[in-house]
Amino acid sequence: MGTDLKTIMSKASFTVDGSPVDASSIIPNPATLSLQDDQSVTFLYKGKAYGFKFSEGKYFTAVFLSDPHIGQNDHDGTSVADMQKYVEKIVNMGKESGAIFGFDALPGYVPTCDIAFSTGDMDADNSKSHNDFKSAHAGFDEAGIPFISMCGNHDLVPDYWTGENPKKGLTYGIGNEGGMNSNKLSINLITEYRNNLSKYGITDVSLITDGTKHTQFNPYSFTFNGVRFYVGQTYWFQKPYKDPSLFSSATYYAPDGVISALENFVSNHSTEPSVWMQHYPFLAGSDCDRWWLDQNDVGKYIKTSNASDYGTHDDVAVYTEASAKAVAKKKKDKLAEIIGKTRNPVHFSGHTHQFSVNTYNGIKDYTTAASGYAASKGAAYIVLMKGNKGVVEVKQVLFLSDFMSGVTDRKMDLLPDDANAVAVKLQESLSHLGTDVTAQSKALESAGNEADVTGAVQSMEKAFDSYIQQQGGKDVDVTKLLGENTDFETQQDNANSEYTGIYPQAGWNSYVESFSNAGNKLYIKLQQSDVKGSSQSSKSLYLRAKWQDRTGKVQIMKQCALPAGIYKLKYYASCVGNPTQNLNYMVLDGKKQMLTVPAASAPELQETTFTLDHPSVINLSFGFTGGKGGTENDVRIDDITLTYQGSKIAPNTDMTSLIQNVGFTEGTTSRPVQGSGGVVQIPNHWDFQYTYDGWNDTKLLDGSFNAWASTIKRAELSQKVNLPNGAYLLTADVKTDMNPNASTIALYGVGGNGNVGRSEEVGKGNGGFNSYSCYFDVTDNTATIGIRSDKAYYQIKNIKLTYVGESADEQTANSYLRQDYYWKGRNAQEFDATGEKYAKARNVVVYPQVKNQLISAASIDQFSNTSNKIVNGICKKLEITDQEKFVSSKDFVAEEAVFDRVFKVGQKSTVCLPFGPSTEKGKFYRLSKESGSILIFDEVSSPEGNTPYIYVASEEGTLHASQANVKATPETMNSTSTESGFHLVGVYQTTEVNNIYGFSVDGELLKASYATMNPFRSFIQSPVDVSGAKVWKASFDGEMTGIEGIVSDGAMLVDVLNLNGILLKKQVKRQEALDVLEPGIYLLRDGNQCFKVKK
């Protein structure tokens, strides 16, 4: 423990097995190590390994109890005798005769009680003495364990008693009667516990008060082992009061002073890890909010004398839960805000008598069950804490007197996975195998530095290679590397004295956590069984749990080291029920790889293949957590074998056998699904995720899996497979009647690197099955393979998995690019495919869902069916679709650029493009200036990109350019402002605009207070409201245009009428309105407005 591990280690003295030694004789030298917080190190001394975990903050365990209600016949009360037994169990926790627990966050740590808390409701209402409570918890003080209690709502009287007895609670009373005296007794008791902290060296106790002489409930704060604790009472913002007298009632005050004091205190201690507590939870129960307003069961309360957001000063006589919510929320929000200013805060509470975990405004609140609650007698949280962090892990437990809560048997030390651990464990494993490692053992004993250890390991690898060659070079049985008793035939140890079904096993560490009383202890087992796993075995290992009051744990584990190579692990396994947690796994290079244990009545053969690139420590675990209540969980394990397959797998090796139920021969119909109708059958060993919308039909048929549903939204079939590292090809035959541009179906594979390989989208093709494939890399011996469909149904069969080699290069890059484009790119305006991940991809087929998409590609042939590819800043051909959004985040050169809008001869059209178009088919004009009431447009000889113009075509056709410089899309595309503030503005996406001028098909200048502009158009932005603006005209080459009442883009829909009001055309595009009509005058109607046009 400390704040600077390097300094502490440099000044420390060292002993090994009780004898002092020089630090320089230990590898690595602990006096010179630069250690990190929570770093694990294996030290080597004369060939023996010693594992240590270093921490800058001390780990310790706190126990949280609540609501004992000592001596109370109702409210789940606990007797003094029962509570004394619970306390005794807590005091003995972690000791030889006590309960043994463990924390997942700190394996190997056996928790003992370092400090204990009780979060209120100590004994009976209006108690005249707290002696029974003190007697019930006296065991903590006797054991030298700090114990802190606080008040709850049953310890401090309410403003009023219950609805049946609606008298004021805080009364003067005579002698030892009355609410005022009851409160004083409770406050005196918690003050006594607070003062006792000094006995344990806790001296920095700080009261949080408002500085007045009013009676307060004195919440306080202190530090213990580097963690700051904030101890509230019933709740933090309780009302201070002036005591009543014989002739007057009590006077209540808003808690604003307490709140200010707490805020000031926290501001000076915000960097310390914190644990907060009070009796009331943030969220729990049907009347949670009234608890925070000092309410009784019908909501009566006494107003505070001063107005405050936190003082319930209003005139509501009786609060309901609904009306209390807003007032309580202010207090809750304020407390959560203050708590949130501290480091790593966690909150603990009680009151509801049941375990629960809630989060309020980001603050996690653990509510502790009552000690006497029938469903959780002896209930508590045990909490792993660390001096420089605070709460690390919280665990529910029971301390019932007739419960034995754990059995641990360690046959070996589990070392950290580092070079020294590898050296020592590899020496042990090779010795089990029968390899002569005498010389290497002596080398380790005399090793003086890390280089010597490395040399010894390399020598052991050579000895192993020699052994393998003597056995034929590959497919060699090396089960003995795992150590003894892998077939569970070795005589087991004697049964545990209390748990007669638990037998420690030779060569394995055993870990059991049980919450079963004396009558149910036989229902937890760890023992050899006559149920066979194979014909060669007469016994298997049987792990079982049932009738646990809390989830039990049964686990075995062993550790060894293996040389580099390809290994196949085989074992027989079965499972009954669905355990809460699966503990069947291997740990390779610090990564957990789950092992399959199928649902079966007897063990069935399983296998997994894995790769080690260097000698490594391996942890092997079997077991589960579960068995609560009548739920039975059991696991059987037998005949574990290990085969060395060689240093490398040959390219193009078929690995399909590692996929379980690959031919879809086994299925179950018991799994519930959404929707109704149809057959529901899911293949065993596969995971099926689905979103149905109506009729469903999933079944196995002739070696295929069918996910048939005409309105299916998602159907994903997948399986996790253990594989050697390298590149893989997944192929399958898939059938659908949907096209890729209408739906999505694709095979995929994902290795430990998170990069997903994906096939091309499945299409209906010839109407039958078609073959699809994808490549992916495996980097941590695990992969998930599957097929996913969105908006389409499918059949799949003939799945095949092939090991390609160390890397699939182009094929893998293609799969990754397809995957990422599909999920990230197809709906984006831009997609970047230039990263190293896709560098080798070639001829990838994708299906863009948006027009005008720009793809930054690593090479011109990276994609085979898309345009608008930018490679090293050059785009061969830029094709822009009219009226579709366009965005470019970078500059590039388009060797050829085309805009597909067709312009009619002589028609004034607005336009704005990302490139400067050619002027060979017309003239471009920009807004230049104004003269009187005339807006003057000048011709431009060399139009530029991202600049708005008026275009008049001299020849019908599209716009294009060569060697066009395309600039990144700016936020605005405006012309120079005229004297009055007119701008010509361009847009690349549909835009709602106000107070603008535009041009009709006939070239007339139009005005509108509101309009919608389509992409690649421009408009004249007016500096004033156009509804009352003066009449303007526009000048092009000296030719004037007039004003009309509305603006109309050429794509706007209008009705065409003759001058007699007869409808000639209905809802046609404005630019096509006069097509095929005879020359003359016509009316165009847009909504309620009409205007004349001439053809």
What does this structure look like?
This protein has twelve helices and 67 strands. With 1095 residues, it is mainly beta. The protein has seven domains: 50 residues, no CATH class; 340 residues, 4-Layer Sandwich (Purple Acid Phosphatase, chain A, domain 2); 56 residues; 170 residues, Jelly Rolls (Sandwich); 149 residues, Sandwich (Jelly Rolls), CATH 2.60.120; 158 residues, no CATH class; 42 residues, no CATH class. It has a seven-stranded mixed sheet, with no helix packed on it. Strands 19, 21, 24, 26, 27, 28 and 30 form a seven-stranded antiparallel sheet that branches. Helix 9 runs parallel beside helix 11. The longest helix has 21 residues. About 1% of the residues have low confidence.
**In the CATH classification, which architecture of the largest domain applies?**
4-Layer Sandwich
Poorly predicted regions are 671-677, 1042-1049
Shape: globular
Overall CATH class of the largest domain: Alpha Beta
Secondary structure: number of strands: 67
The radius of gyration over CA amounts to: 39 Å
Enumerate the strands of the largest sheet in spatial order, edge to edge or round the barrel.
8-9-10-13-14-16-15
Residue share in β-strands:
35-45%
CATH topology of the largest domain: Purple Acid Phosphatase, chain A, domain 2
CATH superfamily of the largest domain: Metallo-dependent phosphatases
Q: What structural class is derived from the secondary structure elements?
A: mainly beta
Structure characteristics:
mainly beta; Purple Acid Phosphatase, chain A, domain 2; seven-stranded mixed beta sheet; 1095 residues; seven-stranded antiparallel beta sheet
